[in-house]
Design brief:
242 residues; alpha/beta; TIM Barrel; two-stranded antiparallel ribbon; globular; disordered N terminus
Length: 242
């Protein structure tokens, strides 16, 4: 059964409908609330300075995380105070080959943008890094986990598809990207077009996006304040955000 979370407030665009305004988005990065840099106020001020139109805070979360209600309140407070379009989000890992997401129902409901990512591979009762497998096996596992999550649903964005294999082995086959993009288009899950992981695969991905026209989320996956917003230049070849 596919779980539909499309009622959450942010509206993603299909790739072929992306315009200049939408490109001025960064919908995947991390703050000092988890493993990134910068307060919520710092990040909003930076986003305004570099000409972004909107951002989404997507710090890491698990089912047992307790910080999220305070985090969400602070994002909404600062967005209002600074008069800026900022959304509440998170990045959670896929838990198993059934595609379950590692987040509580309460925190999922409280978010605007929910990102599910393949991080370590769940095998039995343990988690393994992609580098512990051959390049071929790593890609096949990452593909299987990604497709299981897309088909199950219950989140809005598939985070950095292929990213673990790309980091460990510098490869993610085009046909695997195509399977994921086609599934995203079929099930209404946004593909995280991610400048940190996809920088060497932009022509391949944009060709597949044009063909299948999935929903696309734009993100830097920045962990340093100065890199938030860099995705516009890297992914779309613009010299600056503004």
């Amino acid at each position: 059964m596919h779980i539909d979370n499309s009622s959450q407030s942010f509206s993603f665009k299909h790739f072929n409908d992306i315009d200049e305004d939408y490109r001025k988005s960064d919908l995947h990065f991390h703050s000092e609330w988890t493993d990134g840099e910068g307060t919520i106020e710092d990040i909003i001020e930076h986003a305004k300075t570099v000409g972004l139109k909107r951002i989404c805070f997507t710090d890491h979360i698990r089912k047992g995380s307790t910080y999220f209600p305070d985090y969400a309140r602070e994002i909404r407070r600062q967005a209002q105070a600074l008069d800026f379009e900022a959304y509440v989000g998170f990045e959670a890992k896929v838990m198993n080959f059934d595609g379950e997401i590692d987040v509580s129902a309460e925190n999922l409901e409280a978010s605007d943008i929910s990102i599910l990512s393949v991080h370590r591979f769940p095998m039995g009762q343990k988690l393994f890094a992609a580098k512990e497998f051959s390049a071929k096996m790593s890609q096949e596992i990452e593909l299987e986990l990604s497709l299981a999550a897309i088909k199950r649903g219950g989140f809005r964005v598939l985070g950095h598809p292929g990213g673990m294999s790309l980091t460990a082995h510098k490869v993610f086959n085009t046909e695997y990207f195509e399977e994921i993009i086609e599934a995203c288009a079929q099930y209404g899950i946004a593909f995280d077009f991610n400048s940190r992981y996809h920088i060497d695969h932009i022509p391949v991905l944009t060709s597949l996006f044009t063909q299948y026209n999935p929903l696309v989320s734009i993100g830097s996956d920045a962990h340093r304040l100065k890199n938030i917003g860099s995705c516009t230049n890297i992914l779309f070849g613009e010299n600056e955000v503004v």
